[in-house]
């Protein structure tokens, strides 16, 4: 096992030990944002009939040949067809039918002229009126054809496709009321530390509230997983082993925070090593150098550091992609952009540094990134006010104001193309 590995190696290592979870069937409304596990087919043609694309008048294109402002064609309005109604009658020469958006096109018509460009000669344009057309119309103008979007039996959403809000409506129109999707991973969140107390308690001397557990649960939920915040575990190897082994029997992924370094009370590494297989302990990144990963009873177990920023960055870079892969997503990395640094930034650590930062656009629309002044790994508030991680590459070389650096967008989904 290498002493320290790159972020990319760590990410690939974690991804290699997770796979897409079995499918579950959910109501189509609950499928928004999730991945289709199978091809989904329409039970009818969409649209099932040719219909008008707008309010207007249904005609035969041949009726309006030669129409112009100087020689308009006048027609009598003999009927009106609204959405949900039909008109099955004939349309004689010299006549037309008023039609509403979405209404079936009468079999006797082949085109629709929108209402706004038709003049009323007599009446208000409703049945019994006479209207004038000042221009010819193209055949099938303003007509949405039957089967234009899909044919019966055709796959309208393919396996692996992320279903968005419009897709839910599309599937509903195709008669799909239930959708098979890879189930969400159940994630156990375990905070380690005898100094921790619940947020409901006022900490006494030497105690702190369990903020990491809540942040990581929220991060897991934001990644689409189903988190469960388990009881705090004291600084004891035996207690931690019991908690981790029990969690692996019930959950798909186990995340711990705290106890990941090399101190006398840091037990996650020996815990994984003694109960399963240990694959990783150190990653070339800051914050978050101490990252433990392995399998216990075949279940991925990831030990994050106790410092809030280190735990958050480790989750974003290494755990979130794994949870998305388990749900069938193929885009696993958040979008990145290049941005100009707002100020000089020194670098005293050779590791890759993820600066908590704010990304904005200048007057010309170019990205500008401002790293937070306080980069302490013990702070959550800085992350709350950041929208990106600005990357300082490995090595000791700093960057001057105006230099371009790569930024990971924290508030943009992996499925968004930038």
Describe the structure.
This protein is an alpha/beta fold. It folds into four domains: 7-21 and 184-326, 3-Layer(aba) Sandwich (Molybdenum Cofactor Biosythetic Enzyme, Chain A), CATH 3.40.980; 24-47 and 148-182, Molybdopterin biosynthesis moea protein, domain 2, CATH 3.90.105; 51-144, Molybdopterin biosynthesis moea protein, domain 3 (Molybdopterin biosynthesis moeA protein, domain 3, Beta Complex), CATH 2.170.190.11; 336-409, Beta Barrel (Beta-clip). The protein has seven helices and 26 strands. The protein has helices spanning 7-16, 165-173, 211-222, 237-248, 268-275, 308-326, 381-384; strands at 23-27, 40-41, 51-52, 56-59, 73-81, 95-99, 111-114, 118-122, 130-133, 143-144, 155-157, 178-182, 186-191, 196-197, 208-209, 226-229, 253-257, 277-282, 285-286, 290-296, 299-304, 336-341, 352-361, 367-371, 388-392, 404-409. The strands form seven sheets. It has a six-stranded mixed sheet, with no helix packed on it. Strands 16-13-17-21-20-18 form a six-stranded mixed sheet, sandwiched between helices. Strand 8 and strand 9 (130-133) form a beta hairpin. Helix 1 crosses helix 6 (308-326), helix 3 (211-222) packs parallel to helix 6 (308-326) and helix 4 crosses helix 5. The protein is elongated and about 95 Å long. 39% of the residues are buried.
How is the secondary structure organized here?
Blueprint: H1 7-16, E1 23-27, E2 40-41, E3 51-52, E4 56-59, E5 73-81, E6 95-99, E7 111-114, E8 118-122, E9 130-133, E10 143-144, E11 155-157, H2 165-173, E12 178-182, E13 186-191, E14 196-197, E15 208-209, H3 211-222, E16 226-229, H4 237-248, E17 253-257, H5 268-275, E18 277-282, E19 285-286, E20 290-296, E21 299-304, H6 308-326, E22 336-341, E23 352-361, E24 367-371, H7 381-384, E25 388-392, E26 404-409
Parallel strand pairs: 5-6, 13-16, 13-17, 14-15, 17-21, 19-23, 22-24
Antiparallel strand pairs: 1-12, 2-11, 3-10, 4-6, 4-7, 5-9, 8-9, 18-20, 20-21, 22-26, 23-24, 23-25, 25-26
EC number: 2.10.1.1
Domain MoaB/Mog: 188-325
Family: Belongs to the MoeA family.
